[in-house]
Design a protein that fits this description.
This protein is α+β, with helices and mostly antiparallel strands. It is built from 22 helices and 17 strands. A five-stranded mixed sheet has the order 1-5-4-3-2, sandwiched between helices. The chain has a five-stranded antiparallel sheet with strand order 7-6-10-9-8. Strands 12-13-11-14-15 form a five-stranded mixed sheet, sandwiched between helices. Strand 14, helix 15 and strand 15 form a beta-alpha-beta unit. This is PucR C-terminal helix-turn-helix domain-containing protein. It comes from Paenibacillus helianthi. InterPro entries: CdaR-like_regulators, PucR_C-HTH_dom, PucR_C-HTH_sf.
Length: 547
């Protein structure tokens, strides 16, 4: 960062100043001088301040380039502008129209340049420490002496990684650190930050952001993210407690974050992972088909799969419009609280969880009420694999959960839990053929019924769908459709007449059931909405030759 004549001029706008820049190549300022009468050697990088017309004349006739003139009156100000513009050698002039402010301007600029020189010295010191191989803790300790305010280095789950060792442990500082204790201390802040899109503000900016939330407390915080290989990895939170923030504190924190990033990259994934053995094993199984050799002895994942009645893979993703405003690492910790014993990992932009279940009964949506509440509260969606019992099956079941998430979020957008067992047939159909071919494999009876419903505004297609879903049980179907059984019997008779089929045939029932799934996957059918078509389009356009 440099102090330029333009930046100085913008700072002095409150004093009624005017800037005339004639030498664009000489606008960097690193010094300021007052009372120029006694000066003999003039530096092109210094801004000289005077309120004397005589001194101004000497400066204009000298090799001096940058001048701030505190004009004693309007006439003197206009005269200075005219003299400067007529000079054969270009000058840079800041005209201050209120001479009484000259001393105040000098002191303000002097303090600014002192802070700038101190900032540069501090940056050089941190760089030298990094080059000398100082560890992360020493880097933070040194930065505390420069910032003169408490700060914390935390991972993306809001769990403390490190703090300066010389922090004053009084009540406000202790409360600040307790926010990042990894035991839910940040939970009270999370909703406030998320609702006001503070996470998005910090995540999308590489420059430190000032956060003040009176709903939480009356303090100010400077928060900046830390990226490793372009990915968010951690953040630094500075607590405005011992002194007010200075503008160069923001610059210094930005530099510190880059150095912390370089230092953290020296450690491997294993040494940085909060779960260590568990995360390492899960990460390995997701990346490779084979088991690591040897399997870490302390892994809860390896012991859980051998003792539990079943394991499930969960893939949880955030809706796109909330992606930059959601902290997945924090939510992964909440997930571990909801699913005791689960191992979680952030992988390819999603929360991956390996969850165990002691009961031999298959997993049902009602078993996951707390999970559904979390998903709904944070705009999340979750795909769940089928049950498995062996570590070597982690990767294929992860792929099941991911496919369930993909299909479910497309076909059933109003839901948040998608079980793969519900989407197995869709997965097979998608793998085996294209969308256009799906339509050609559908039973022609559906085309006939859809065309009839479209022409006469009837509901025979949805009646058939419900009948097949209830395994041709008339009582359950009538109850699901909220109609009399006699009405259902009439509809079934009409369906058989219109489509020229006999619903008692098992092979036909299977084909019709698969046909509905094909249409749903192709986007041509959705239960409850009937036939998905544009106004004025008949059903036959999708199955030409069937009707």
């Amino acid at each position: 960062m440099q102090i330029t004549l333009c930046s100085i001029s913008s700072r002095l706008e409150q004093y009624d100043t005017e800037l005339l820049v004639s030498r664009q190549d000489c606008t960097v300022i690193y010094g300021v001088e007052l009372n120029t009468e006694r000066l003999t050697l003039l530096d092109p990088g210094v801004l000289y301040i005077t309120s004397s017309e005589e001194s101004l004349g000497l400066l204009l006739d000298s090799d001096c380039i940058n001048i701030l003139y505190a004009a004693p009156c309007a006439a003197a100000a206009n005269d200075a502008l005219n003299r400067c513009s007529d000079l054969p050698v270009a000058k840079n002039l800041i005209l201050l129209r209120n001479a009484a402010c000259g001393a105040a301007v000098y002191h303000e600029l002097r303090d600014l340049l002192y802070a700038w020189r101190r900032f540069n010295t501090n940056c050089e010191k941190l760089h030298n420490m990094l080059l000398q191989g100082c560890d992360l803790q020493k880097l933070l300790d040194e930065a505390y002496g420069m910032l003169e305010n408490p700060f914390a280095l935390c991972d993306m789950s809001f769990t403390l990684i490190a703090t300066p060792r010389q922090l004053k442990q009084d009540a406000p500082v202790a409360e600040f650190l307790a926010t990042y204790d990894g035991k839910g201390g940040f939970s009270s802040c999370y909703d406030v930050y998320r609702n006001k899109r503070r996470f998005e503000m910090v995540n999308l900016n590489d420059y430190p952001q000032l956060i003040i939330e009176h709903e939480i407390d009356n303090y100010a915080y400077m928060i900046s993210n830390i990226r490793i290989n372009g990915q968010l990895a951690a953040f630094i939170s500075v607590f405005e407690y011992e002194r007010p923030f200075h503008e160069f504190d923001y610059e210094l924190v930005a530099v510190l974050c880059k150095m912390v990033s370089l230092e953290m990259q020296k450690d491997s994934f294993l040494s940085n992972a909060s779960g260590k053995y568990d995360e390492y094993l899960l990460y390995h199984l997701l990346e490779k088909d084979s088991l690591p050799n040897p399997i870490p002895e302390l892994s809860r994942l390896s012991s859980a799969t051998s003792k539990a009645s079943g394991c499930y893979m969960l893939v949880i993703s955030i809706r796109d419009y909330e992606r930059e405003n959601t902290m997945l690492q924090f939510l992964s910790k909440k997930l571990e609280e909801i699913l005791p014993g689960a191992i979680t990992l952030i992988y390819k932009g999603c929360i991956i969880a390996a969850a165990t279940r002691c009961s031999s009964r298959r997993l049902l949506p009602e078993d996951l009420q707390d999970l559904q509440t979390l998903l709904l509260a944070h705009s999340l969606q979750c795909g769940i694999s089928q049950r498995f019992n062996c570590l070597s099956e982690v990767r294929p079941h992860y792929q099941q959960a991911r496919k369930a998430l993909k299909l479910g979020s497309t076909l059933h957008k109003g839901e948040v839990l998608y079980f793969y067992e519900k989407y197995v047939l869709y997965d097979l159909l998608e793998l085996s053929t294209s969308v256009e071919k799906l339509r050609t494999h559908c039973h022609p009876a559906l085309a006939v019924l859809l065309e009839y419903d479209s022409q006469y505004n009837t509901c025979f297609t949805s009646t058939l769908y419900c009948y097949l879903q209830n395994i041709c049980n008339q009582s359950k179907t009538a109850q699901a459709l909220h109609i009399q059984r006699s009405t259902l019997v009439y509809r079934i008779k009409k369906i058989q007449e219109i489509a020229d089929i006999q619903l008692g045939d098992a092979e036909l029932g299977l084909h019709l059931g698969m046909s509905f799934k094909m249409l749903e996957l192709a986007g041509d059918w959705k239960n409850g909405d009937g036939y998905a078509k544009k106004p004025g389009q008949g059903a036959s356009r999708f199955w030409q030759g069937h009707v």
